[in-house]
Amino acid sequence: MDREIHVRGHFNGLKTTLLFALMWAIIMLIWWLTGGSRGTLGLFICIGLATTFVSYWFSDKLAIASMRAQWVSEQEAPGLYRIVRELSARAGKPMPRIYIAPTMSPNAFATGRNERHAAVCCTQGILQLLNEREIRGVLGHELMHVYNRDILTGAIASAMSTVITYLGYSLMYFGGSSDDDRESGGGNVLGLLVSMILAPIGASLIQMAISRTREFDADEDGSRLTGDPEALASALNKIESGVQMAPMAQTAGTQSVSALMIANPFTAEGLSRLFSTHPPTSERIARLMQMSRELRAAGAVPGQRISLH
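Structure for Protease HtpX homolog, as requested:
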């Protein structure tokens, strides 16, 4: 009875293009201010492109391995399979592989270079914390990350951020290539300060802008896919409380996957909130509740389209 849902964008291509243009502008600004050689710039662009390829092509394997997640069969997780199969069919897209990560910190993420090589992963904690309706809301959100090609965007943004950061580090140790600057000893100070301080911060902020924008979009699109924004709002509220009680251990692996997760898996206090890759949960919930009110006004009844039991 359910008609296929059209996967739509939110001018994601334009947003990404503008953000990437800003990142490249930062790279060129560093190069110009420090008098860096074209060879040095070319080297780090090559590093960034190589990082992009690896992180994009092997993104699913890297993320799954970082979380020590295991693939599960339909016999082992019939409820997850039923929800993912239904939502994938509604979107008219292939069904991704399903994994479970052995951690009690509640969270979930999607990964993969495209919709045919995608995977969704839930932690043991989120499966115990949420009811089936709320898990459906979470999985709708994660599937839309795949269908909107957010994984590709995140991989490219991460690689470009690496270019900016390592270019700044190299200039901190080796300086510019200008003989005059080396002789004067002070002509490169402004450029080095930009490289050492502003470049890594700028790269991180742009990455966060990309991530935060796409979290809001996935909330909206995922709720349109499920027809139940209140379920996702309830899930986000429980996940935030659950993370405070059982935050994920910060390792190199979990740090690399944290931006993919539906909510920040680490406790965020003080200035660390400013640098979070996720928007405030309260703001996300407020938007979802407003969406629910709009659906009700339009005659839709959230949560009653499909029986979950």
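The longest helix spans residues 189-226.
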